[in-house]
């Protein structure tokens, strides 16, 4: 079983989780950690390490959905993900969005976190569209 942690600057991760509960119900294998103004970077480092330890126990892998490439949450997560001493396979995805979070619930039964990350990125990209009016063809036979 895979697990998911959503990380963000400010309350975005918490808000995504609250919205997901509204649409999908509980996401029992998904949690979040936020970088706050008051706690700062050191608090985020400790909070993420503690959450990784807590939810990673017994998992086959950890998907981490970050809000922003090269932001503090991303940098902290990557230190864990690419640590050769880290025992838990991890995949880090940036640009988390609401459809991506919802779709992650369907991938948790897998055991290959890298494969799940690739599938989630592909599905997340498909959910981003530029909405345009639909052209309708006028019927001539009236």
Automatic annotation (TrEMBL):
Protein name as annotated: PTS fructose transporter subunit IIA
Keyword Transferase in record: yes
Transferase listed as a keyword: yes
Residues of the PTS EIIA type-4 domain: 1-128
GO cellular component: membrane
GO biological process: phosphoenolpyruvate-dependent sugar phosphotransferase system
Keywords of this entry: Transferase
Top-level taxonomic group: Bacteria
Lineage, highest ranks first: Bacteria, Pseudomonadati, Pseudomonadota, Gammaproteobacteria, Enterobacterales
InterPro entries according to UniProt: Bacterial_PTS_sugar_comp (IPR051471), PTS_EIIA_man-typ (IPR004701), PTS_EIIA_man-typ_sf (IPR036662)
PANTHER family: PTS PERMEASE-RELATED-RELATED, PTS SYSTEM MANNOSE-SPECIFIC EIIAB COMPONENT-RELATED
A GO molecular-function descriptor: transferase activity
């Amino acid at each position: 079983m895979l697990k998911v942690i959503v990380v963000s600057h400010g309350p975005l991760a918490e808000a995504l989780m609250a919205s997901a509960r509204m649409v999908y119900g509980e996401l029992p294998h998904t949690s979040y950690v936020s970088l706050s103004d008051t706690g700062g970077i050191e608090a985020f480092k400790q909070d993420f390490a503690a959450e990784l330890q807590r939810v990673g126990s017994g998992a086959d892998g950890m998907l981490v959905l970050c809000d922003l490439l090269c932001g503090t949450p991303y940098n902290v997560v990557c230190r864990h993900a690419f640590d050769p001493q880290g025992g838990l396979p991890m995949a880090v995805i940036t640009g988390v969005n609401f459809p991506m979070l919802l779709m992650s619930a369907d991938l948790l039964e897998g055991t290959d976190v890298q494969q799940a990350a690739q599938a989630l990125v592909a599905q997340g990209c498909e959910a981003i569209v530029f909405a345009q009016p639909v052209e309708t063809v006028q019927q001539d036979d009236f």
